Amino acid sequence: MRDESAEVNGVQIAYQLHGNPDHPTIMLVHGLSTPLTGWPKLMIAELVSANFQVLLLDNRDMGRSQQLDHLAIPNMAMALGKYKMGLKTPVAYTLEDMMEDVVALLDHLGIERVDLVGASMGGMIAQLVAIHHPNRLRTLTSIMSSNGYKNLPRAEKHISEYMLKRPESSEYKDKLAFHIGKWRVIESPAFPASDEYLQEYVDSMLQ
User: ∠140-146-150 over CA atoms, to 5°?
Assistant: First the structure.
């Protein structure tokens, strides 16, 4: 396993490569506030055993990638309200910038084409890669994501409200409780995670 970082598209991006580099590459892009450790270890191991090289990255401002602390943090509630009214909110960077991070990382690693998998916001990034750089993909998988179409069904109210919250403090126990709660509200009711698994899973992302 390679655990490295590279300056691509003007930012330092942390990434991991698992498996045989001679095998086809499957790239996993996670969503908002989720580092590359958000992909379950068992899933990565199964993909490697299925003869894939697995490429993971921390999106900019996440995990071990460059933290752009000098940029203003947008007010999510205000931005969402403006979006619903058809108004734009000035932002420090866009999904298109994050899409270019993905493509620039592939260029840096000399990987021509991948099977691209994105979850949540990562699914939006993956869709943009498919739109603007279709020659870089063999396949596209977009998980629990959206294409931004305004008439799509909305998330249930309790989920939207929770996703706009923040941990009560920056202390570990409050961050742990908040993120466990987040995964509880978005998990499938048919396949609930055990308390033990969810605690270990969230802990791995907070390290």
Answer: 140
Q: The sheet that has 2-8: what strands, in order across it?
A: 2-8, 11-18, 53-57, 25-29, 114-119, 137-143
- Residue 155's CB is within 10 A of a number of other CB atoms, namely 14
Class of residue 147 by CB neighbours under 10 A (exposed 0-12, middle 13-18, buried 19+): exposed
Fill in the amino acid letter for 97: D
Looking up tokens 């933290």 gives 67
Tell me the per-residue pLDDT of 35-94, one tens digit each, with 9 for 90 and over.
999 999 999 999 999 999 999 999 999 999 999 988 877 677 777 777 778 777 778 899
CB of 198 within 8 A of CB of 168?
no
Rounded to the nearest 5°, which phi and psi values hold at 182?
-60, -45
Q: What are the Cα distances from residue 179, in Å, to 34, 58, 121, 182?
A: 10, 18, 17, 5
